[in-house]
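Box 4.2: Ligand-aware structure prediction
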Amino acid sequence: MKKLGEISAAIVGTGFIGPVHLEALRRLGVRVSGILGSSPEKSQKAAQDLGLAKGYRDLPELLADREVNVVHLASPNRLHVSQTLACLEAGKHVICEKPLAMTTSETKSLVAAARKHPELITAVNYNIRFYPLCLQARAMIQHGEIGEVLHVTGSYVQDWLLFPTDFNWRVSSSEGGALRAVGDIGTHWLDLIGFVTGLHVESLLADLWTAHPVRQQPVSSVGTFSGKLEQTKAATKDFPVDTEDYGTVLMKFEGGRRGTMSVSQVTAGRKNCLRFEIAGTRKSLAWNSEVPHELWIGDRTESNRLLMADPSLLHEEVRPYANYPGGHQEGFPDTFKQLYRAVYSDIQAGKRSPEPLYATFEDGHREVALCEAILESHRSSRWITDIKGRM
Ligand SMILES: NC(=O)c1ccc[n+]([C@@H]2O[C@H](COP(=O)([O-])OP(=O)(O)OC[C@H]3O[C@@H](n4cnc5c(N)ncnc54)[C@H](O)[C@@H]3O)[C@@H](O)[C@H]2O)c1
């Protein structure tokens, strides 16, 4: 068993989420050797701003750094496949941001590469699994407390792309993948529901819609989520949009159980709002990421309850992932710390645990396969029923 202090990480991506990885690693006690941006200058600046020793010139220089055991990939989606393959070839453990890649031919190659290197831990950064009350909902379902799951409804909605003047690389399919709202936030919902309920989607029917077919692209680049502050200043040009702002998916899970998911990046006032409601044969569970410390437990024959996150009220297996006493709310940044707690514990042990809590490359592949089925269903206006065969 390696000590945490013997492990060192490096981060690729200096934008919105790379520094979130760094902060979580620091809180966990993992050493971070350096960071890589899109140019040597950006790497140097980020290293300086973030107090890191090294700003790498390029990926080969990062991979040649013998001090680095683990690479966190927080770069745009189009780079995930090549960067992940290079990391695995160089013998580094990899935590790749979601979605794992742009297409299933890419994700399949990553699953194969991970299997070729069982000594390396590989994970996809589906952090929402690690809200204490999402882990608790999963534990309650596993303990049979809500009975059998009948159906799931929910959504993931945001407002940061509401105006046609809002822009980000995700808007272009060549940068982010053919699906945007579904690929970017819908896969979080799909991953979470599969994780919490243990159910896999078997067939689906999808409808997608682009509210703004033309957006204003700033002539210089705009950081993720920062457009709200910058849009009035930047010079822009017309950009024809080939990705969706909105999507709804009807799903059938194993055993005929039903589900519905809606996603939108144009819902005013919803900043980053994932909701689910799971109806069981005895009880229901509902949760909202904007109020993450509350889990609603619905009952037909007794009063409904509101469970507040408090380690003493959670199932024993969930407690290690809730580090603050009740009332001291844990939120988005904490989910990264708890995800890395699970991944680094496997890195320390030198092998993947039998049923890891974190998303594996197989899980990452499943979400991208669902994205492709969703796009095919939308384009052909029909149910896609062979999802199992695509995994
Ligand atoms: N888990 C989550 O909650 C979450 C949240 C946001 C983003 N993400 C994912 O993280 C990834 C990055 O998203 P973001 O919002 O931080 O984007 P961003 O645009 O804010 O940052 C991307 C960074 O990658 C850098 N980059 C570009 N080309 C590079 C190259 N060749 N080598 C190294 N770095 C390069 C850019 O300079 C930039 O710093 C995406 O895959 C996204 O889906 C996940």
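In the box above, the bound molecule is nicotinamide-adenine-dinucleotide. The chain has two domains: 4-127, 129-326+367-380.
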